[in-house]
């Protein structure tokens, strides 16, 4: 970045604080700039002494790069001058601890006896592994049947449950995983209820066998373990339901859809809006990112930041025409929502200077 660019960006009035709900989530198709928006919002939020946590649940970690800071897997303060905290959830590490916080052997060995691959069927995807016998209760999708979300998603959810009620933070900004993963997380309460029901059904069906095994080996540790495992699942289901109630409360949550001005992204965003509506998740803002428009037009003030040259650059002019068509459709499609534009910058958005510009666009 040139000295001129740095000075010009510094002249922009960076938002000090934001008018937003307690929980701000950025979601959308992968690669549209959710991390950039989340980082910019968190920075602006923390500037007025609001203790703010920004969390990335996307396995492709880019929050560290965007904020130009080393961000661990647990909430850590990354700025001394403002109360900004950050965490990049590491799904693989969390899965190693048990994706749902429940040990797979907590069911008295029933899972190992019948599931072949533990209580989660065929592994992270929830499908039966190659050569796995069909489950007598759940069908070919493993011991518990149904579509168990991926272990990485479950792990991300388990950690998020700890953060939403953390008294250290006044606001939590979440950079969600791509669209389908986020929505499957919201289906977990029903999945967990189904899991508990099937476990109880299994225990009843095989209670005689388990009683015989208990008598053969002495003691009733398996029975105690099974009860503890079921209680863990019920407790987790309650906590997930609590999270969903927060996400559905417009006084507490603002889910912001991020898209780029392209036909496929508009269609994907329309689908996401419809799905969020099915879950009663409030959406107030739609962010159109990487718009090939002069930054001064987007910000509503004169700024000396390089923008596209539609007069002399044929490529820029043609891309702008394509984007204008997508923008017109998005404006019509998302009528009733606050549609914000963020320009496409010549430089990579990394560090506080350009994040301040993004925050100004979102303000």
Automatic annotation (TrEMBL):
GO molecular function: ATP binding; ATP hydrolysis activity
Domain of life: Archaea
Stored InterPro entries: ArsA/GET3_ATPase-like, ATPase_ArsA/GET3, P-loop_NTPase
Chain ranges of the ArsA/GET3 Anion-transporting ATPase-like domain: 22-97, 146-362
Transmembrane segments: none
Pfam families, sorted: ArsA_ATPase
Family the UniProt entry places it in: Belongs to the arsA ATPase family.
Name of the featured protein: TRC40/GET3/ArsA family transport-energizing ATPase
The organism of origin for this protein: Haloarcula rubripromontorii
